[in-house]
Every structure is written in structure tokens, then in C-alpha cells.
Amino acid sequence: MSVGELAAPFAISLPAVSKHLDVLERAGLIRRERDGRFLRCYLSSEPLDDASAFIDRYRSFWQGSLEQLAEYVEAARPRPAASRHSKGKK
Questions:
Q1: Radius of gyration of the chain, Cα coordinates, nearest whole angstrom
Q2: What local confidence, expressed as pLDDT, does residue 26 receive?
């Protein structure tokens, strides 16, 4: 797609869209090529595949660690004392 076609659905300026595309290009997620008057953008999915593989490798580690942290926090949390007041008494 051209930059203009990519920008059309968004309520931001063309230069703002271009800045976002710069970030995506530096991350290797898109590549841009000149096509006459137009600058065409092409999606590059390989970096997303790399990120997905990285996340999958560490998912079980982080899930286990976060579950242990939650158990620790719950065990360390002070419990409220039960009320000893009778009904109707002040």
C-alpha cells in the first residue's frame, strides 16, 4: 500500500503516519520502495515470527515465576481482624 492509503483510515496527519512507519521500518517490520510517484510499503513478518518464538520460549518460565510471586504476595498480605462488636451495641 502507499503511505496515503495506509494513512486514510486514521485521523492523524500524513507526516505523523510517516513517523510511525519510520519506526516500523527501523524495527524491520515493513520495507518501503519507490514506485514512480508513490512510496509503497510492504509488510515483513519475519521479525514477528522471531518475537513469537522468543515469547514462546520464555512463556512457561514467566508464568511459573508470576504464579510464585502471586502466592508470595497473598501469603504476606495482612488479613483484616474479625469484628467483635455485637449487633445493636455501639
A1: 26
A2: 93
Task: Give me the domain span that covers residue 23.
Answer: 3-44
**CA distance linking residue 85 with residue 90, whole number of Å:** 8
User: Do 26 and 51 have their domain in common?
Assistant: no
Residue 6 burial by Cβ neighbours in a 10 Å radius (0-12, 13-18, 19+): middle
What is the rounded CA–CA span in Å between residue 14 and residue 43?
19
**DSSP H stretches of helix in the chain:** 3-7, 14-26, 46-76
Residues 7-48: pLDDT tens digits?
899 998 989 999 999 999 999 999 999 988 888 999 998 888
Mean pLDDT of the chain: 85
